[in-house]
Amino acid sequence: MVDVQHWLSALPPVTVYLIVAGVIGVESMGVPLPGEIVLVSSALLAATGVVEPEWVAAAAAFGAVVGDSIGYAVGRRGGRPLLHRLGRRFPKHLGPAQLARAEQSFARHGVWAVFFGRFVALLRILAGPLAGALHVPYRRFLLANAAGGLVWAFGTTYLLYSVGRAAEHWLKDISWAGLVVAVLAGVGSTWWLRRRAHRAEPLPTADETTRPVNAGRE
Fold first, then answer.
1. What pLDDT score does 141 carry?
2. Under a CB-based contact definition with an 8 Å cutoff, are residues 64 and 118 in contact?
3. Contact at 8 Å (CB) between 46 and 56?
4. What is the extent of the structural domain holding 30?
5. Coil, helix or strand for 38?
6. Cα–Cα dist 55/39, whole Å
7. Of 43, 48, 189, 211, which sits with the fewest C-beta atoms within 10 Å of its C-beta?
8. 166: buried, middle or exposed (CB in 10 Å: 19+, 13-18, 0-12)?
9. Which pTM was predicted?
């Protein structure tokens, strides 16, 4: 992520906004791209004054809403065969187990899976195409999609922008040794929490993988 932030800092602000919108938009269509990394890097870059946080957030929200809508249209037209083709092309991110887990989220939560899915890497990629393939009513999808995209984009941007501004102020009085220790501690705790969450998350059984999903359920 540091490399991404350094690369973005060398670009004109307008180009950064376009990259944020483009990467997040394509990711929302169903293509695994590092949309969250680009948003986080750009938000932290805004804390240094290189770009404006409101434009970063607006670009991210635009890419999320438009990309999800395009993904919905593609999924509705291509149906489940399209999802299976994506799974074969990106087995690590969109394989049968991931698809089954996403379908279970839709079956359990309906369009709320679109809203909350914006904050989950798997559903952020699959929400649009999967909602279209399952024939979720578009008006309900659009409402949840727009709400989730706006909350995720502006919330993430301004949270990290505020953290970055505070860190820039306090780091003036912290030695490099203390900074290295703090970064290592943060990385280590994040890795440990993700590992615990991954172990605790149940994988779908064979019956769950093949179970049809009721698209009308919310």
1. 92
2. yes
3. yes
4. 2-210
5. helix
6. 11
7. 189
8. exposed
9. 0.69
- On whether residue 216 sits in a domain, the answer given is no
Give the number of domains in the chain. Answer: 1
- Average pLDDT along the chain, 218 residues, taken 10 residues at a time: 69 94 92 88 89 96 95 85 72 71 76 84 82 87 93 92 73 48 58 56 47 47
* CB distance 33 to 69 below 8 Å: no
Look at residue 217 and tell me if it is in a domain.
no
| Rounded Cα gap, residues 30 and 72, in angstroms | 9
Q: What string of H, E and C letters represents the secondary structure of 133-187?
A: HCCCCHHHHHHHHHHHHHHHHHHHHHHHHHHHHHHHHHHHHCCHHHHHHHHHHHH
Beta carbons within 8 Å of 126's beta carbon, 6+ residues apart: 30, 83, 94, 98, 99, 102, 117
Q: Is the four-CA dihedral 140, 30, 32, 6 of positive or negative sign?
A: negative
Q: Which two tokens stand for residue 96?
A: 């049968």
Position 215 in a domain: no
- Give the count of alpha carbons within 13 A of 161, CB side only: 19
> Cβ distance 41 to 1 under 8 Å?
yes
Query: Could you tell me which of 68, 217, 32 has the C-alpha nearest to residue 148?
Result: 68
Query: Could you tell me if 97 and 203 are in contact, meaning their C-beta atoms sit under 8 angstroms apart?
Result: yes
